[in-house]
Amino acid sequence: MKVTVERAQLLKSLGHVHRVVERRNTIPILANILLRGERGRLALKATDLDLEVNETIAAEVSPGGSTTVPAHMLYDIVRKLPDGSQIVLEASGERGVLTIRAGRSRFTLQTLPESDFPDLNAGDMTHSFRLQAAELKKMIDKTQFAISTEETRYYLNGIFLHTATSAGKTETLRAVATDGHRLAQFEIPLPSGAKGMPGVIVPRKTVGEVQRLIEDAEAEILIELSTSKIRFTIGDVVLTSKLIDGTFPDYGPVIPLGNSKILQVDKSEFEHAVDRVSTVSSERGRAVKLALASGKMTLSVNNPDSGSATEELEVEYDSDPLDIGFNSRYLLDIASQIEGEVAVLKLSDPGSPTLIQDKEADKSLYVLMPMRV
């Protein structure tokens, strides 16, 4: 195999593909990236057995062929080569090496045969639909922060993507994530082709890779899925992933519908005030207390080891006085997702979950469990 390719193109493609490869691998072939040159194209593929990324770029190929080389080493070599250089990749199956040449630089990497490289066979996809890249990115941004990192509850380690019926009785495609302390939900009108699709849990790593691959907000993304796999086609990149094999909990009862104490606060002022007072909170507790009274809110943090902080804000609130505590980090995560100027908090009592929404957007909602303070 002999392939000539532009450095900028190869670097961009390797940047998309090599991230899937874990740096520590007990199976040597999984540390490698598959390169296949044929008919004026170079195809690159990497996998960790749960996730597979393919990309094809234009190249001069003569003769064709394929091999596998260490992914991170190849990426680092190409990254350090001069901008604008032409890179020649030459593989000799007999010697088991890949030679990389650019200008006066020459590298030789050990290879493993293509026959050892695993194929994440996607099988038949039962449903397919298209989404604007900006729309998919927003779905991820609005929910990703609430994905659980607790491996014992593996069924919470991703975003639950499913069809639902909104309050206005319209069918929607809904994304939900929760870690048991907070819940994030975002929905869009149901795209054509998604009707009747199974509810699927897209793993955290897959979600992160899809988010990174979205570079053009105007692009259209093809999403295909079955009960066990999901595939995203983003331009020349195809990402195929296994889904989490588990049942996402029934989250409906967690969303409070009868919270009658309504607090409206300037989102920016609230975010900055929480950030300031939480400076003295303990790393472990991170608790901030909200004391609500007519027209005002007092935020306070008391840390026996370092000190205390308070700040007062003018708010719209005319219900009974209420003292409630939250994890400041969780409050800031939710506040950062509110795009409008006003955040609406619907509260009940110090021990019940609070519903948080953007006053100007009804596609998203957040639920936050209180803390004892």
Q: Largest sheet at a glance? A: 8 strands, antiparallel
Radius of gyration: 25 Å
| Helix/strand structural class | alpha+beta
Q: Indicate the percent of residues in helices.
A: 10-25%
Shape: elongated
By CATH's scheme, which homologous superfamily of the largest domain applies? DNA Polymerase III, subunit A, domain 2
Which strands sit side by side, in order, in the main sheet? 6-2-3-4-17-16-15-10
Q: What is the number of E strands?
A: 25
- CATH architecture classification name of the largest domain: Roll
Overview of the molecule:
With 373 residues, the chain is α+β, with helices and mostly antiparallel strands. It has three domains: 2-116, DNA Polymerase III, subunit A, domain 2 (DNA Polymerase III, Chain A, domain 2, Roll); 127-253, DNA Polymerase III, subunit A, domain 2 (DNA Polymerase III, Chain A, domain 2, Roll), CATH 3.10.150; 255-368, DNA Polymerase III, Chain A, domain 2 (Roll), CATH 3.10.150. 16% of the residues lie in helices and 43% in strands. It has six helices and 25 strands. It has helices at residues 7-17, 71-80, 133-143, 204-213, 267-277, 328-335; strands spanning 2-6, 32-38, 41-47, 51-58, 60-61, 65-70, 86-92, 97-102, 105-110, 127-132, 158-165, 171-178, 182-189, 200-203, 220-225, 229-234, 237-242, 261-266, 287-293, 296-303, 307-314, 322-327, 342-347, 354-358, 361-368. It has an eight-stranded antiparallel β-sheet. Strands 14-11-12-13-25-24-23-18 form an eight-stranded antiparallel β-sheet. β8 (97-102) and β9 (105-110) form a beta hairpin. It starts with a strand and ends in a 5-residue tail after the last strand. The model has no long low-confidence stretch (mean pLDDT 94).
